[in-house]
Amino acid sequence: MVATPTSERLHIGLFGRRNAGKSSLINALSGHQTSLVSNIPGTTTDPVNRPMELRPVGPVVLIDTAGIDDVGELGALRVKKSLDVLDRTELAVLVIDMETEPGEPEERLIGELKARKITTVGAVNKADIDPAQATRKASQLSQRYGIPFVPAATTPGAAPGVDLLRQLIIANAPAGQNEVPLVSDLVRPGDLVLLVTPIDLGAPKGRLILPQVEAIRDLLDGSAMVLVVKETELAAALAALKRPPALVVTDSQVFGKVNREVPADVPLTSFSILMARFKGDLPELVRGAQVIDALQPGDRVLIAETCAHHQQGDDIGTVKIPNWLRKHVGGELAFEWAHGKEMPADLSPYRLVIHCGGCMINRQLMMTRLRKAQAAEVPIVNYGVCIAHMHGILARAISPFKDMGV
Ligand SMILES: Nc1nc2c(ncn2[C@@H]2O[C@H](COP(=O)(O)OP(=O)(O)OP(=O)(O)O)[C@@H](O)[C@H]2O)c(=O)[nH]1
Ligand SMILES: [Mg+2]
Question: With a 6 A CB cut-off, is 20 part of the ligand 1 pocket?
Answer without folding.
Answer: yes
